[in-house]
Design brief:
With 273 residues, the protein is α/β, with parallel strands linked by helices. It contains nine helices and eight strands. The chain is 40% helix and 10% strand.
Amino acid sequence: MVQAMETADKLDKLEAENIYILREAYKKLGKLGMLWSIGKDSTVLLWLAKKAFYGHCPFPFIHVDTKHKIPEMIAYRDRVAKELNLDLIVHTNQAAIDAGMGPDKGRLACCQALKTEGLKQVVKEYGFDGLIVGVRRDEEGSRSKERVFSERKEDDAWDYAHQPPELWDQFKTDFPKGHHIRVHPLLAWNELDIWEYIRRENIPIIDLYFAKNGKRYRSLGCACCTGQIESEADTLDKIIEELKHTTTSERAGRKQDQEDSYAMQKLRKEGYM
């Protein structure tokens, strides 16, 4: 009982902080878009945005489609976007694909072209001043270096070595004109928080996360770069219980991380999501 109350209190606090961050971003940062990768984190962020703005999100959702996604992800994206009446932007770096870019060119090069450059194209085409992104500190090393309000220079580069502190949740929201801002409301959440919030709020989540024939996805990305884990967790309760005892990294199945241990930091420095 005590543990359940502590979990509820923590989720209430995280939810309130996120709603505050989303409203601050909307008030201070100009034209915003929210990245929606179809995964659990960005879907929770979508849910929080609807709460923050009373059921109507005042900015579009963005999916950078590499054309290598798991087919079920695209079907889920289109169905949920229609059901929730989302203003959805789907963008592909078609020029890179037409030039033959793919994972056979090297996974880091492929991510750079199809994700990083694709995202830069969206920002430029629609004139976004900032993007809201569903990353967490505990998910991967380079993300632990992020700020909630994270500045990118005119070329979208991230100077992770020189960032303002965010002590006592005092966020810097005044940035030079022309600089691009990434907003990370979920930084303080962990993987277990995400799943406990999904269960509490009954958030509709893609079923790739649930075990079938002894395997499930723990992290979602491109089909060619995302592996499954051995698991019998076919319900929310079982996933939560499994996570309480696992010692395996959430991104252990991501092949780009296996190719280069600093892959994500290199990509994020150049503007990756």
